Amino acid sequence: MAHAALAQERVFALRETIARLEGRPLPEQAAAEAGLLAEQLAGQLAEQLADLEDGGVAARRRAGEARLATGVEAFDQALDGGLPLDAITEIRSLGFRHAGAASGLALALAALLQATEEKRAREPAPFLWIGDRMGGGEAGLPYAPGLKAFGLDIRRFFQALPQRLEDALWLAEAALQSGLFAATLLEVRGNPPAFGLTESRRLSLRAKAAGRPLLLLRQAGEEEASSAAFRLLAEPAPALARRLPDGSMLGGSIGHPVFRLTLEKSRNPAPLSLFLEWNPHDRRFLALDPARQAQAFEPKAAHSGAALSAPSDRPDPAPALGAVLAFERAFERAS
Amino acid sequence: MRLLALDEMAEAAGLRAGQGLAEARAICPNLIVIEEDAAADRRLLEALADWCDRFTPLVGLDGADGLFLDITGCTHLFGGEAAMLQEILTRLTQMGLAVRGAISSAPGLCRALARFDGNRIVAEGEEEAALAPLPVAALRLDDTLVQALHTLGLRQVGDLVEAPRAPLARRFGTELMLRLDQATGADEEPISPRRPVAHLSAERRLVEPIRAEDDILALAATVAEGLKPGLEARGAGGRVFELVLFRVDGHVFRLSAGASRPLRDPPRIAKLFAERLKGLHDELDAGFGFEILRINVLQHEAFDSAQGDFEGDDRRRLSLSDFIDQVSARLGPEGLQTCQLRESHVPERAVRMRPALEQAPARIPLPEAAPLGVTVSRAERPLRLFARPEPLETFAVEVPDGPPMRFRWRRLTHRVLRAEGPERLSAEWWLDGEEALTRDYFRLESDSGQRFWVYRQGLYDEVAHPRWFMHGIFA
Known about the structure:
The structure holds two protein chains of two kinds. By secondary structure, chain A is an alpha/beta fold. Helix content of chain A is about 40%, strand content about 20%. In chain A, a hairpin with a 6-residue loop joins strand 12 and strand 13 (about 270-280). Chain A is globular, with a radius of gyration of 23 Å. The termini of chain A are far apart. Chain B has 15 helices and 16 strands. At the A-B interface, helix 6, helix 7, strand 5, helix 8 and strand 6 of A face helix 14, strand 9, strand 11 and strand 13 of B.
């Protein structure tokens, strides 16, 4: 019993800290001041503890955070209920060779957002792509017939290719502020010094105020501290074959696109990796069996020899002291 | 090398234009000679013409060293003809220029008076009297003609005016009579203004120059108020506006901004320039400040004042066009684009990006589930397309119609696991000509799961060694 009380107090303290960090009011304190009965308080706390135990999903749902369920249960659970509609979601690729997968995932999410918005407003929902000129040269420019085939509505598709990053950030901010766009997609190349934590915080606040999502597509970028609610790493994965009407597969064909997705930043401590297939016709994600995918298509090394052993004449670098709070800026780490 | 123009001291020393440089140096050994820079002279004249915009919107150039100002209907703003001439000449003299000017009813006469007489104003009906004492060279005739007239003793314009016209025309051609008529005002001569005349314009002259961006914008909003009655009277709203800023030292800045739908509301008009000014950053050098601020309406269109519905649904659409205006004003019309599908099966021609400003959604109401109006290929199309297809190095290609087994692109070798194709697209002969090569498109998936769109340019019976290109990437 004493153990339970201690745990409860600890949970309470943690909740308080979280609430303070997030700048939310403390419902427990207010309730206590109002003179609520101790049992009620205990009951509430027990409920919240239960919430915390199942990942805080119910608590956040009650708090009214707008989410868009992607339809894949494991993914939605890791995202606390779905794609946030009022925050930044970052999608990262390891290099421009993976630009197709990263753009595909971002555009699939945009298609979901757009479809939801169109169902709500019953008119074509605008969608804005803010590209990077260099990125356009490296990975190509969005191609409208391809976007249409991918499940997007291109009647209100807007594209901007600003010369400078400052203009791109300004445009993203203006687009979020206007609240017009079902989805705003900002493509960034690498980790530019001019787009750091401050700028992403600014965009995140705008997104929160307007209740509109920003999909940040970081091509060939590294992990760094940002204000994005989630960061996903997108990698290409082999597609399944085309399905025939009788349920069998058409051998040798290339079916719907598949992405390998790793959730790098979330409130969920467990790293999540899954294979998602995007069905452009139904605008729906489908989770594939990771074990089968991994077995069937694990990229094989060009040389079958064993990996080189670690050098023995140099000591292992000492681990960083203390808790790692946030990633440093990527360009500082590299230098 | 010859002298082209001289200052007063050089003239006093006995030099004249057209003299050889060596001869001039012999007369005046400490002569300072500057090489002619026709482009710089032209720029100066254009800048002066810009500066003169403050007096009238109709300013034309006259040769390399003159300006025509059409001041019809403008003189009362400056206190009459004499005061206006006085002001123009004084201000230009203060800039360090040697100027002469004349006002009359004909451009030819003005030119003759300004260049061969002095600062004069000639009233209607006194043209011939004013012209009579001037030399014939004042009539814009070429040198041989002037020489020919001189040998006949016709030295002054008065001699020509009194002489019978028929023999003169027979002997010297119609050119002489045309110039004479233009000078006396008997023949109408248009001057060609440098810029199109604005449909409407409003301006404010300031005693104390302003520099700060906020001041400029606040003033622009009040000046735009002046446009409103004019636009209302025409039942129109402006689509393209121009903000003209006259700097104290004579420099003139022109900023134009377009709107995606006709505008009349002064704060909205000012807001267009707010983004434009921000986009300019440091390019707008205020120097010692601006003394005149003018807003021109360069293009206008019928203004349909639509009645809003009860749901306030049209507010959304309006604000989308506001957003387009805001972005296009700051990043330029190309800054925000929409796509327009076209009837073409050649992938790069099937879509064209156009400025969003041109097809503002507010002006073309989209019906429920509007069809795109164009047949879009049902075949697989990539998510991203390269502006220029990139050449590939292919290995082990299935001949004649198969995909490559491996290919090298951007120094990386990709092993093809699966392929779909070919999708054969023949060239559009009506655009590309009969010789254009057929393309065979393939969708390839590499061993790492990347999906590409590549094509072979030309069939094997068209070319001996067809080349391969990467055209796009799939998700």
